[in-house]
Structures are given as structure tokens and as C-alpha cells.
Design a protein that fits this description.
The complex is a heterotrimer of chains A (289), B (237) and C (327). Chain A is mostly helical. Helix content of chain A is 74%, strand content 3%. In chain A, helix 9 packs parallel to helix 11. The longest helix of chain A has 29 residues. The model of chain A has no long low-confidence stretch (mean pLDDT 88). Chain B has a domain of 161 residues: 3-Layer(aba) Sandwich (Rossmann fold). In chain B, strands 6-7-8-3-9-10 form a six-stranded mixed β-sheet, with helices on both faces. A four-stranded antiparallel β-sheet of chain B has the order 2-1-4-5, covered by helices on one side. The mean pLDDT of chain B is 92. Chain C has a single domain, classed as ABC transporter involved in vitamin B12 uptake, BtuC (Orthogonal Bundle), CATH 1.10.3470. In chain C, strands 1-2 form a two-stranded antiparallel sheet. Chain C starts with a helix and ends in a 9-residue tail after the last helix. The chains are: A mainly alpha (289), B alpha/beta (237), C mainly alpha (327). Chains in contact: A-B, A-C. At the A-B interface, helix 6 and helix 7 of A face helix 2 and helix 3 of B.
């Protein structure tokens, strides 16, 4: 039973991680809380769903297609609601991404309807009993996909020239630009990568819970804030581990404590972290502040 | 090679450069001296594109730099070694050097350059896998210079490279600059330590509150009584 | 002054005059139930925006105002609805007054409890922490069966009227007028400017932060009480993240340099969606777009500090039709 819960938690947590990593990337490069990132995740779920419904593609194509579309959406958001805004007043970019949240949520309601919808049975659900634990094929897919994406991201950020430039820009935009890095390019890249990860998470969460709605983004956004704090602001590895931790903790709290307080858990963790260890469990990678 | 003419720059309403003209010829080492707030760093920032000029012209090899962004100016071959050693503390020493050569292809010449850097700065070789933030102040300055060299710049601009360093390390830094000069590099140097800077340079400019008031060979500036009074501590060199 | 500034000033002047006329006309002469309800919500929104503005004027960004508002709403509604409390002094019925006060005080206590962990943190950390606390309060009410839990609390007596809500608003505004000129107001201003410098100058940071949070929470609690006794039904979703965000929008679009900003923002942004009803289907999207455009064009909000002097308006209006002379 406990092991089963752990697996469920890991699955939920890996989706959390994907979104939180995106937040962390964007926060790292722009020091911006990208409020609409949860909405990008939500749109990702719908894109994936409609790729399946309209074009009858399999789930892998839907996943990839959704990542591409959300990447474009994310870049568009950056271009329209982040880049034109002066960074002098730090709340201005935050508020304009709130504007994007409002627009995307309402647009999704208009286009896709306000009802909860789910994926048709695109992948055959097979149960794999391992000892006294059952893992479904959907769970395997979710876990494998998110771990794969995280690995690719990790290699990209740490092993490639562009990834190093991204980390350099996150530490100091000015220094990076004086070394020849095109900061605008890095920002666009960051939004694209972060949004693609959110899109993937959208499809995966849609598959896992069969409950896609225009309002699924906000809660995700808030929880990702908690995860980002848990892992340390700007710390990518921290966000990965933090997401897994929160997923497991939530599932266990539902199983062994009161289920109705599940959503308070993330916020309780957030407050605790802020009181006792503001740099997160693994240390914030922040300059100043 | 670099020709700055009648350059204006401002912070908000306050003019920091009031029509500065200056020239750096190929293979030359030029020093800009002046007191705090005279506009030395502002001039470098304006050339490297961090600040937008309000007027005047910056020409490098026939290209106007006025409207270029910092990374485009780096592409032209100008590299600035920033004040306060702005190294990337969360990257390793090696990654910092790689970022120095960010725009270069990873060819044989690049690898040879990296090898040469490690020969010249053995301490960086020993520490290449460490986070740059763990280096001492002097080592960080060496890393900053080495990173600048990794770009294979045609003009290297150094902003206060000796600032806040122990005397022994200051001498070491100036030895490196002298070496770079000997290699035939083109250098524009901004320094508080005017005496040492003039000793390693060919020509010098004196800037006061945003205006160039004097331009001469280094020997002449070192012998100039006003310059001695104001910037060399009053004693004869 | 640039042409766009002049146009903006003219726009603000016209809307203020129009709004004042609208308000007075409806207070004394017409009583259209629909317009009255918008006016009441506008006043409540202004009070809660001011509750955000007070700690904000000391450099403390609190997204917990929605939570504090919920505390005030549930507390006052418990008094009047669950406990059926009545208190009269001679002909005066003070029930509502006491209920509001109790809601404000409980919210202030929660505010103080929030302030303590918030003492050491700033910036994004403070924003996230207050957001988290607000959410914890919301989830608490969602699960607190005594006040209705997920099904909410209904049957609240309709004690909020346009008169008592505007009396409350006038009192709050008078308080702000006083505070701005007081020692505490100046201390807040220096804290906003630079916390460390303020401390060096002798401002007791701990005390001022706790006080700012407490008063802000108190005002939010009052607004919650007023809201509950007008809406007559409350549940936890009324006090979620979007309420906090809405409060933030009211203040920042109105202008965060001076308390007139949240007043202007709270009033007109309550009306705006109603006016946009003509374009029913698109109003939410337009509102979102407006937010982005405002942040691009005028991130400091519509009302600026300089607009608070008569001289500004005299010179603006006098020069309104003169050709541009500046360079």
C-alpha cells in the first residue's frame, strides 16, 4: 500500500517538477514570477487533447505537438507581455502576466468550453503487477516521459554552449551580454523551453487524471511557486527534486491524513520554508536579495 | 582602429560624457586616467554598448558602434573586462573561460588558446573544475582577464583591473598587461593606479568631469607637473 | 508637460467629476438598485484596496488581503448569523458596528501573526509567503464545518447599506489623510524607499512592519464584513488568489504613489466591467489586455503624486489647449 502510494506520488510529482522547472528557468533569467505559466500548462493539455480528437494522432505525437505549440505560445507571451515592459517597477511584468492569465483562461473557456473533459482511451491501459504493487501503462508513460525530459534539460543546461549561456545570463545579464550572448535570444529560448515543458506536463496530467479544464492552471501555478521555494529560487535541480517531494507528500497526506487539507499542504510547506530556510532545501542560486 | 568623436552620454539628466574624443590605434596600449566619477567607466560602458550614447560617434574599423547591442559589439572584436571582476561565480572556472570564447567555433585554434591560457595562468588550470566564486580576489581578476583573452579580441578594454587587490597582486596584474602589450595586443586601459598604468602604456588621456583635458605620450604625462600633482600623488616619478 | 500627460490628466479630471456626480446623484436622488449595488461594491473594493495600500506604502507587499478579508467576513457573519447577536444602546442598533469591529480585530490578529514570519523576508519571498498564508486561510474555511465548510455560509442579514458603507469609506480615507502626514506615515515612506536606510535613521522596523500589517488586515477585515452583509452568502472561493490579485490590480492601475490611486482604481475598475457589458463576451479578455497595455504605457498607475496638488490641475487645465512648447 505504502509503495503504491509512493509510485502515485512520484507520478504526480514528476508532472509538478516539469512545471516548476519552467518557473525556475524563467525566474532565473528574468527574476520574473511568470504568473501565466500555469495557463500555458492548461493550454498544453487542451492542445494535446485536440490533436488526439481532431487528427487522431497517437499520444506521443500529441505530446510532441503540444510541446511545440506551447513553446510558440510561451514565446508569444514573452514578446507581447514581458519584453515591452520596463523592469524599473518589479511588479509591472508580474501584473502583465496576470493579464495574460486572465486572457488565456477566458479564451480557453470560449474555445474549449468550461467543462471538465478527458482524453479518449488513446493508449491501452495495461496493469503491470510488480509484487503487490500495480503500475499502469499510463503511469509508466508519465514517469518515463517526465524523467526523460528532465534528463534532456539537465544535459542541455549543463553540457551545451547555449545552456551555459543561459546559466550565465541567469547570473548576470550584463556580463553575459559583454561576452557576446544575445540576451533577448536567451530569454526567448528560456520561454520556449519552459513553455514546452509545461505543455508536456499538461498532456501528462490530462492523461493521468482525465480532468482537463480551463481552470486547472491556477492551482498548478500556485503549487509550482511552493516547489520553486522548496528547491530554492532559481535552482533547477532543486525544482526537480522539490516537485517529486511535494507529489509524494501530497499523495501520502491524502492516504494517511485528511484529504481535504491536501491543497493546504503545499502552502504550509511554503510558509515553513520561508520561515526556517528561505534559500530552499538545496540553496537558492540568487544574486543579491 | 577605434575612433571616438565628440561622444555624449548621460545617466538620466546628468551628463557624464560631454563631447569626448579619443583614439586607439592598432597595437597600441592607451591609458585613460581620471578621478572617481570623471567618466572613465562611463566611456568604456558606452563603447561596449552597455550605455547608449546621447550623441557623437564611435567607429571601430569603419563600423559605427553607436546603435549596436553589447553582443554585436563583442562580435566586432571589442571585449570589455568589467570593473569589479564580474566573473560568473556560479559557473566553473572552465565554463567562465568557455563563455569568454562564446562566439568562437570550437576549433583547433580555440583549443590551443585555451591551452595557452592555462600555461599562462597555471592556477586557473588547477582550479578549472571549481566554481569561480570560490577563487580569491586576485585569482578572479586573472580569470576575468583570461576570459577576455579567450574571445580573441582585436581590442581589449580593461576597467580598473587593479581595483581592491593586494599590492603584490597588483604588480602581477600589471606584469600580465605588459606581457599582453608585448604580444602586440591593442589595449584600452582605465585605471586609478595612474603611475603603473602609464608605465605600461604608449599614450594616455586625462579625463575630468566628462571632458578630455589632456592627451600625450606616457613619458610626457608622467613628467607633467599637473598630472603628477593630481594623479601621481605629487611626487616626481 | 507632454500631450499624452495632458490628455491623461483631462481623462482623470473628467472621470472624477463624472464619478462624483454619479455617486451624489445616486446617494440623494435616484435609487436604482443595480447602480446602487455597483456603488456599494466599489466602496468595498476601495476599502480593501486601501488595506493593501497601507502595508504597501511601507514597502511590504501583501497578497494575504483576500485571506484577511475572509477572516473579517466569516467572523462578522458568525456574530450576526450564527450567534444571532444583538446589541442596542437606546434607539441605536450597534449590532453591525460591533460585528464589523470584531471581524476587523480578528483579521488584525491574524495579520500580526502573519507579520512575524514576514519580518525577515522581502521582495518575491514576501509576496509568495503572503500568497501562501492567504491560501491556507481559504483552505481552512473550505474545511471549517462550523461556518459551513464547502457549502458556504448563507442567510446573512442584509445590514450593509449604501450609507453605512460610504460612511465607513469616508472614515478610512480620513484615516489615510491623517496617517500620510503623521510620523508613522513618514516612517512608512522611508521604509519603502530603503529599509536599511530607514533602520539606520532610527525607524523601528519590527514595530512598524507589525503595525502596517495589523492595520492593513484590520481594514481588509472590515471590508470583508461589509461584503458578507451585502452579498448575504459567502464561501471560501470568494477569498481566493484571484481576489488578492484583483486587489493588487485595483491599486497598481489606480496608482501606488499615493492613497488616491487605490481609491480611483477601486472605484472605476469596479465600474469598468459593468460598462464593458455592452461587449459582453469579450469583456474579460479586454480587461486582461488593458492590464498588459497599462503596464507597458504607465506602470506606475494612473494617479501620480504630483496630481495631488491644486496647482497641478490649475496649470494643466490652463494649458490644455495651448500648443506644445517644450523641446
Amino acid at each position: 500500500m505504502f509503495l503504491q502510494q509512493m509510485i502515485n506520488g512520484l507520478m504526480l510529482g514528476s508532472a509538478y517538477s516539469l512545471i516548476a522547472i519552467g518557473y525556475t528557468l524563467i525566474f532565473g533569467v528574468l527574476s520574473l514570477l511568470h504568473f501565466a505559466h500555469g495557463e500555458v500548462f492548461m493550454m498544453g493539455a487542451f492542445f494535446g487533447l485536440y490533436l488526439v480528437l481532431l487528427f487522431k494522432v497517437n499520444v506521443y505525437v500529441a505530446l510532441f505537438g503540444s510541446m511545440v505549440i506551447t513553446a510558440i505560445l510561451g514565446i508569444l507571451v514573452e514578446r507581447v507581455a514581458v519584453r515591452p515592459i520596463s523592469k524599473e517597477f518589479h511588479l509591472a511584468p508580474l501584473l502583465s502576466t496576470v493579464g495574460v492569465t486572465i486572457i488565456l483562461q477566458d479564451a480557453a473557456t470560449k474555445i474549449f468550453g468550461g467543462e471538465q473533459v478527458g482524453f479518449p482511451e488513446t493508449i491501452k491501459i495495461v496493469n503491470y503487477p510488480i509484487g503487490n504493487v500495480t503500475v499502469t501503462s499510463v503511469q509508466m508513460l508519465i514517469l518515463a516521459t517526465s524523467l526523460f525530459l528532465m534528463l534532456v534539460l539537465h544535459l542541455f543546461v549543463n553540457r551545451t554552449r547555449l545552456g551555459t549561456a543561459m546559466r550565465a545570463a541567469a547570473e548576470s545579464g550584463r556580463t553575459a551580454s559583454l561576452l557576446g550572448v544575445n540576451i533577448n535570444g536567451v530569454v526567448i529560448l528560456t520561454f520556449g523551453v519552459a513553455s514546452a515543458l509545461a505543455g508536456a506536463a499538461g498532456v501528462l496530467v490530462g492523461l493521468a487524471f482525465n480532468a482537463i479544464s480551463p481552470f486547472m492552471g491556477v492551482e498548478m501555478a500556485l503549487k509550482s511557486f511552493a516547489i520553486m521555494l522548496l528547491g530554492g529560487l532559481g535552482n533547477i535541480t532543486g525544482a526537480m527534486v522539490g516537485g517529486l517531494i511535494l507529489g509524494i507528500v501530497e499523495v501520502l497526506s491524502v492516504a494517511y491524513l485528511a484529504s481535504s487539507y491536501r491543497d493546504a499542504f503545499a502552502f504550509g510547506v511554503m510558509v515553513m520554508i520561508l520561515i526556517f530556510r528561505p534559500s530552499g532545501l538545496f540553496g537558492a542560486k540568487l544574486h543579491g536579495d | 582602429m577605434l575612433k571616438v568623436s565628440n561622444l555624449y552620454a548621460a545617466y538620466g539628466e546628468i551628463l557624464a560624457l560631454k563631447g569626448v574624443s579619443l583614439e586607439v590605434r592598432e597595437g597600441e596600449t592607451v591609458t585613460l586616467i581620471g578621478s572617481n566619477g570623471a567618466g572613465k567607466s562611463t566611456l568604456l560602458k558606452t563603447i561596449s554598448g552597455v550605455m547608449r550614447p546621447r550623441g557623437g560617434d564611435i567607429v571601430f574599423d569603419g563600423h559605427h558602434l553607436n546603435r549596436m547591442k553589447p553582443h554585436e559589439i563583442v562580435r566586432q572584436g571589442i571585449v570589455q573586462v568589467q570593473e569589479g571582476r564580474a566573473i560568473l561565480k556560479r559557473l566553473t572556472v572552465l565554463e567562465n573561460l568557455e563563455m569568454g570564447g562564446y562566439l568562437r567555433p570550437r576549433d583547433t585554434e580555440y583549443r590551443e588558446d585555451l591551452q595557452r591560457i592555462f600555461e599562462r595562468f597555471p592556477i586557473l588550470d588547477q582550479r578549472k573544475q571549481q566554481l569561480a566564486g570560490s577563487l580569491s580576489g586576485g585569482e578572479q581578476q586573472m580569470l576575468a582577464i583570461a576570459r577576455g583573452l579567450m574571445a580573441k579580441p582585436r581590442l581589449i578594454m580593461m576597467d580598473e583591473p587593479s581595483l581592491g587587490l593586494a599590492p603584490l597582486i597588483v604588480s602581477e596584474i600589471f606584469r600580465i598587461i605588459a606581457e599582453m602589450k608585448k604580444e602586440g595586443r591593442t589595449i584600452l586601459l582605465v585605471e586609478q593606479n595612474a603611475r603603473k598604468a602609464l608605465q605600461v602604456s604608449d599614450r594616455g588621456y586625462v579625463i575630468v568631469t566628462g571632458n578630455i583635458i589632456l592627451e600625450d605620450s606616457c613619458e610626457a604625462l608622467l613628467g607633467n607637473s599637473e598630472v603628477q600633482e593630481a594623479y601621481l600623488g605629487g611626487r616626481k616619478a | 508637460m507632454s500631450t499624452s500627460m495632458r490628455m491623461l490628466s483631462l481623462f482623470i479630471a473628467v472621470t472624477v467629476v463624472f464619478g462624483a456626480y454619479y455617486l451624489i446623484a445616486n446617494l440623494f436622488f435616484r435609487t436604482d438598485a443595480y447602480i446602487e449595488s455597483i456603488l456599494i461594491f466599489a466602496a468595498i473594493n476601495i476599502i480593501v484596496s486601501l488595506s493593501f495600500y497601507l502595508p504597501f506604502s511601507a514597502g511590504l507587499l501583501s497578497l494575504a488581503q483576500a485571506g484577511f478579508m475572509g477572516v473579517g467576513a466569516y467572523m462578522s457573519a458568525s456574530i450576526t448569523t450564527l450567534w444571532k447577536f444583538h446589541f442596542t444602546v437606546g434607539p441605536l442598533d450597534l449590532t453591525f458596528f460591533i460585528a464589523l469591529l470584531a471581524g476587523g480585530i480578528l483579521a488584525a490578529i491574524v495579520g500580526v501573526l502573519t507579520a512575524f514570519p514576514a519580518l525577515r523576508i522581502r521582495g518575491v519571498y514576501l509576496l509568495l509567503m503572503t500568497l501562501a498564508i492567504s491560501e491556507i486561510i481559504r483552505v481552512f474555511f473550505l474545511n471549517f464545518e462550523y461556518t459551513g465548510g464547502a457549502s458556504g455560509l448563507g442567510g446573512i442579514p442584509p445590514l450593509t447599506t449604501i450609507w453605512n458603507v460610504y460612511v465607513a469609506l469616508v472614515l478610512v480615507v480620513l484615516f489615510f489623510v491623517r496617517v500620510t502626514k503623521s510620523r508613522m506615515g513618514r516612517a512608512f515612506e522611508s521604509m519603502k524607499e530603503d529599509q536599511d536606510a530607514a533602520e539606520v535613521m532610527g525607524v523601528d522596523l519590527t514595530r512598524h512592519k507589525v503595525v502596517a500589517f495589523a492595520i492593513g488586515a484590520f481594514l481588509a477585515g472590515i471590508s470583508g464584513g461589509l461584503y458578507a452583509h451585502y452579498a448575504l452568502y459567502i464561501d471560501s472561493t470568494n477569498f481566493g488568489v484571484f481576489r488578492s490579485i484583483e486587489i493588487l490590480i485595483f491599486t497598481l492601475l489606480g496608482g501606488y504613489e499615493i492613497y488616491a490611486g487605490p481609491i480611483y482604481g477601486g472605484f472605476y475598475l469596479t465600474f469598468l466591467p459593468e460598462w464593458l457589458r455592452i461587449i459582453q463576451d469579450w469583456r474579460i479578455i479586454i480587461f486582461g489586455g488593458l492590464l498588459i497595455v497599462m503596464m507597458i504605457l504607465r506602470p506606475a498607475g494612473l494617479i501620480s503624486k504630483e496630481m495631488m496638488s491644486l496647482r497641478y490641475w490649475r496649470s494643466t487645465l490652463a494649458n490644455l489647449w495651448k500648443p506644445r512648447v517644450e523641446a
